Structure formats: C-alpha cells, structure tokens
Amino acid sequence: MPKASEIKKNHTIVYGGKTCIVRDIERSVPQGRAGGSIYRMRMYDVVSGAKFDETFKDSDMLEMADLVRRPVMFSYMDGDEYVFLDDEDYTPYHLNKESIADEALFINEKTESIQVLIVSDVPVALDLPMSVELEVVETDPSIKGASATSRTKPATLSTGLVVQVPEYISTGEWIKVNTEERKFQSRA
C-alpha cells in the first residue's frame, strides 16, 4: 500500500469503499506545524462520476485499486463520446467528453502511446504520453531573424489548445507539446 505522497495524477485508489481516480493533486507544506506535507486530491468516483476533494497527510496509507492499462488509438467521436480502439484486439472503448476534457486537447488521429485505464471492465480515464505532436493552425506571422531564446507568442493548435511558442514558429508547422506542463517543447 503506497503512502499519499507516492500517489500521482490518474492513479486509482479505493477510498471509503469506492474506486476513485485521482484527477488533480495539490501539495502544501503548513508553516509552523511539525510534520510533513498535506496532499489535497480531487477525485472522481469511477461508478457514479461524482467528484470530491479529500486531504491526506504524506504518511497516510492508501489502497490502490485494481486497474488495467490498455494501449489504444483515437478512432472517432460519437456525439459526446470519444471512441478509442484497442491496439491489439480492436475493442472499442467509449469515454465521455466531460471525463477526458483535459486530455482531449492533446488527442488527434496521429497521437500514439495513449493508454486507457480500465477499472472493473469500465474505461474510466486516459493516460497520455509525455509529449504529443500537434499542428499550429493559427499564430502571428513569424518574424525574420527571430532567435530561439527570444519572446514567445500564443499559438492555437489543431485541437483547440493554446500554447506559447517561440516567434520563429509559423502557422502550418507541427510542434511537440509537453502534456503535463502544457508547454511547447520543440518543432516536430
């Protein structure tokens, strides 16, 4: 059983008899108090979809839920659902648009190394690769002679995500974006 300090985003834990997926973690260190860090976790109940916040000390022991990770690729949208196909046996997994709103900004037909998280035969979340390649669909014109270390400008990507890019990047280029920090990494 891991400590609260070892839990990461998208891990699934059993809390209060429910299987929950951790969507966000905020760490704080109280001033003037003995002891360690406090972890505030935003969790979603896998079955009901209800979200709630819970606070843990860094030494609190949490129980990991039984979880299966399957490699998938994005196939198509069906109304408010994203449909992913298993890379090995082509099993379709349907995920609601709201449950993967953050991850959807990094997904297109070419995105590789996506994993779907399955709890009790129900797909509950996506695990993205560290970086993805996306196309710049709108940005200010590139400036001739702009250096790589100079100022940045906003760029809208093919999925609707807006990131800051160096001035030398122009519309139509493909770039690598870090999925955790939501930042430009390099040209693709």
Automatic annotation (TrEMBL):
- Note the Gene3D superfamilies from the entry: 2.30.30.30, Nucleic acid-binding proteins
SUPFAM superfamilies to which the protein is assigned, alphabetical: Nucleic acid-binding proteins, Translation proteins SH3-like domain
Q: Which CDD domains match?
A: S1_EF-P_repeat_2 (cd05794)
On whether Protein biosynthesis is a keyword of this UniProt record, the answer is yes
What span is annotated as the signal peptide, if there is one? none
Listed GO biological process terms: peptide biosynthetic process
InterPro entries found in the cross-reference section = Elong-fact-P_C (IPR015365), NA-bd_OB-fold (IPR012340), Rib_uL2_dom2 (IPR014722), Transl_elong_fac_P/YeiP (IPR020599), Transl_elong_KOW-like (IPR013185), Transl_elong_p-like_YeiP (IPR011897), Transl_elong_P/YeiP_cen (IPR001059), Transl_elong_P/YeiP_CS (IPR013852)
Q: Which residues form the Elongation factor P C-terminal domain?
A: 132-187
Alphabetized, the UniProt keywords read: Elongation factor, Protein biosynthesis
| Family to which the UniProt record says this protein belongs | Belongs to the elongation factor P family.
- Tell me the protein's name: Elongation factor P-like protein
Identify the species of origin.
Answer: Alteromonas hispanica
Q: What is the lineage of its organism?
A: Bacteria, Pseudomonadati, Pseudomonadota, Gammaproteobacteria, Alteromonadales
